[in-house]
Design goal:
The chain is an alpha+beta fold. The protein is 32% helix and 24% strand. The chain is built from 17 helices and 22 strands. The radius of gyration is 28 Å and the shape is elongated.
Length: 576
């Protein structure tokens, strides 16, 4: 029998290793930006062409490399960050394996230009498919620039599995946002096809950086979380319980400035909220843990996305207690004044994390359900009568021969959903022009999602103009949603796009978007309603067939039939 085992060539081995580190263009951006911050950069610029397929360029003003180190940087497992096995258990840098540049160079065409601190002459190196093509001297400013062109040019099978340009660039935006959150003191700039997409100047605090990335609206809806246990420190922000929703964006956790997935820490956040978290809702948070590197193992996953703690129970307790200490007192909300008005506090237990909108005079909407004023389905003939409101959340109603307790939000949500579905089936949803167009400021990744779904927005009744830099001018909204904050609506749609993706049947994708629009537009839990508007809502609910759930599956009403009432009061067998 002949031998079957052979030693793979260096080229094949390098491409296999590259598959573990370089999953998509965003992986390249992550590795290069981490190298930049490890080099002590105060400014990092990321330039992208064609969502990273054609070009990725990362420039920094860090300490640079001498010519000998620049050449060694492309040799696998050559690194300046480790010297012995013991160093693996005290990692203080973002990179440490010496795999990033060799892996990237194995599947692309790379140019490295670097000038070491204190020198005037630098190095220009070109590598294609892992093979050194050229190395020469050149003058330049201190720092390093890495250009990655034609990613996966020699591995077409890998290139075939890349998603749409919008999806891939969205992942790149997310990487830059996370690096900006991890390093508030560093200036980050991101551009795509020559146009600036995002810029995050140096921030003095994590809170200030969160506001740069996610906006003032999110910061207003959050409370600060702090905690300390021995050598472990916790800081960050999490949503007030009444501002939580069904979406999970953002849920960001950083350990020693590295973004990671940690189910244990996420579980601790949920436990910290406890019963303050409404059913079906998820917390949103940006949390950072700082600790002795000997207490955490970063060498668990090829892309360093996972960590293992030496004392996981202590970390779990710290996160849980830190969150629990603030969410219990975070139900009252006095947000920042905008344009001379302040959004009123409204108790919300619905899916939406956004406040009740103001009308153009800065006042709460008039006490009527403006969205449900026309009959659009034949009535089914059942008598409905409102008798009152319970805790500003539920309507006590007489429906036919039954007593029912109706959730005002879910009932209205289902009514609006049925109307939107009917409008959508007849063509684009009717929109209403705004007298004064409103500006929506979105994160870089959210802005890219909005740009890539322009056709969807038109079908849903939006008219949106891109102003660049994440700013959009909203000129028209769906007629049913004309009183809702346009930024909140756009973010709701972005969350649906991120959750559902863009691959399912078009009907299913629009179904989720319409359900989200209905939820954001429906009357809120916590709103006082007059008897006549409660009656109108019940009539509209009757006219759509008295559905038992909202589009997201939440219960609309609890029924008590006459037979059940007789049983409760011991009247079985009575006829009168």
């Amino acid at each position: 029998m002949t031998s079957k085992i052979v030693v793979l060539s260096v080229e094949v081995a390098n491409r296999i290793a590259a598959g573990e580190v370089v999953e998509r263009p965003a992986s390249v951006v992550k590795e290069l930006v981490e190298n930049a911050v490890d080099a002590g950069a105060a400014r990092v610029t990321v330039d992208i062409a064609e969502a990273g397929r054609r070009l990725i360029r990362v420039s920094d003003d860090g300490e640079g490399m001498v010519p000998a180190d620049a050449a060694l940087a492309f040799v696998r497992h050559a690194t300046s960050k480790l010297r012995s096995e013991a160093d693996l258990f005290s990692i203080r840098t973002m990179g440490f394996r010496g795999e990033a540049l060799p892996s990237i160079a194995a599947v692309s065409k790379v140019r490295l230009i670097t000038v070491a601190l204190g020198t005037t002459c630098g190095t220009d190196i070109r590598v294609e498919g892992g093979v050194l093509k050229d190395q020469r001297e050149m003058a330049g400013a201190t720092g390093t620039t890495v250009e990655v062109a034609d990613l996966f040019y020699n591995t077409p099978a890998r290139k075939k599995f890349l998603k749409s340009p919008a999806t891939e660039f969205g992942h790149i935006c997310q990487i830059v946002q996370r690096q900006a959150l991890a390093f508030p003191a560093v200036h980050f700039r991101l551009s795509h096809n020559g146009a600036q997409v995002a810029e995050y100047p140096p921030a003095r605090t994590l809170r200030a950086r969160i506001q740069q990335v996610y906006g003032l609206e999110l910061v207003d809806a959050c409370v600060e979380v702090t905690g300390e246990a021995d050598d472990v420190r916790l800081e960050g922000m999490c949503y007030r319980p009444l501002q939580t929703g069904a979406a999970k964006t953002p849920q960001e956790l950083f350990v020693n400035r590295r973004w990671v997935r940690c189910p244990s820490a996420a579980h601790a956040v949920y436990e910290g909220y406890g019963t303050s978290l409404a059913k079906g809702h998820h917390p949103r948070f940006i949390l950072a843990l700082s600790m002795n590197p000997r207490g955490v193992d970063m060498n668990v996953h090829p892309t360093k996305r996972e960590v293992r703690f030496a004392d996981q129970e202590r970390i779990h307790d710290l996160v849980r207690s830190g969150v629990r200490a603030v969410v219990g007192t975070a139900n009252s909300w006095t947000p920042t004044a905008r344009n001379g008005t302040v959004t009123p506090h409204v108790e919300e237990t619905s899916r939406s994390p956004y406040p009740l909108p103001l009308d153009r005079a800065g006042l709460a909407p008039s006490a009527r359900i403006a969205e449900a004023v026309q009959e659009y389905l034949p009535a089914i003939g059942e008598e409905v009568r409102a008798m009152g409101q319970i805790a500003e959340r539920y309507i006590l109603a007489y429906v036919g021969q039954e007593l029912q307790v109706v959730d005002q939000h879910t009932a209205h949500e289902r009514v609006l959903f049925e109307r939107l579905i009917r409008q959508f089936e007849q063509g684009p949803i009717p929109s209403q022009q705004s007298l004064l167009p409103q500006t929506a400021q979105l994160t870089a990744s959210a802005a890219e999602a909005v740009r890539s779904h322009a056709v969807d927005l038109e079908r849903l009744g939006f008219e949106v103009e891109d102003f660049g830099g994440g700013a959009f001018l909203v000129r028209a909204l769906p007629a049913l949603a004309r009183q809702i904050d346009p930024e909140a609506l756009l973010m709701a749609l972005v969350e649906e796009w991120e959750a559902e993706g863009s691959t399912g049947p078009i009907g299913e994708r629009y179904h989720a978007l319409l359900a989200s629009l209905a939820c954001r537009t429906a009357v809120r839990s916590g709103r006082t309603m007059r008897l006549e508007e409660m009656s109108k809502l019940l009539e509209d609910w009757r006219d759509v067939g008295l559905p038992s759930t909202c589009p997201h599956g939440r219960r609309v009403a609890m029924r008590l039939t006459l037979e059940e009432l007789d049983r409760i009061f011991g009247r079985q067998g009575w006829t009168k």
